[in-house]
Write a structure and sequence with these properties.
The protein is α/β, with parallel strands linked by helices and 122 residues long. It has helices at 27-34, 62-71, 73-84, 103-116; strands at residues 16-20, 38-42, 49-50, 55-61, 87-93.
């Protein structure tokens, strides 16, 4: 069974993430900072948050996720994540309402990412 230890319990350890400098003003980065996570910034070629040598997170708003499906860059981004990290994931932040595309296209993209490319969606 997996046990999760909240960051606030690990008093003597500092959790550190590498963050793309374009994400520094995001609510996600601000929240991580308020939780005591040390954020090191640089321009990343792949992903938005590098958690470890294996784990990278690509952060997208729902609007950006939809736009990525429409313009075709979503699967190329996911392939790049997969090629560079063994445990990539995409975090869709904010409103979870599909607006610009059909829900079936949205679900098809999500299932393809998760099943074909093995990139989980949060």
């Amino acid at each position: 069974m997996f046990s999760f230890v909240p960051l606030s319990i690990m008093e003597n350890e500092v959790f550190e993430l590498l963050v793309d400098d374009r994400e520094l003003k995001s609510q996600t980065a601000r929240k991580l900072f308020t939780l005591g996570v040390r954020l090191k910034t640089q321009r990343l070629d792949v992903g938005d948050f590098i958690v470890s040598e294996r784990i990278v997170v690509e952060r997208k708003t729902m609007a950006d996720f939809e736009a990525s499906i429409i313009d075709g860059r979503l699967f190329q981004q996911a392939l790049s994540l997969r090629q560079c990290f063994s445990s990539p994931m995409i975090a869709v932040i904010g409103n979870n309402k599909v607006v610009r595309i059909k829900e079936s296209a949205f679900l098809g993209a999500v299932f393809s990412l998760m099943l074909d490319l093995r990139v989980p969606i949060l």
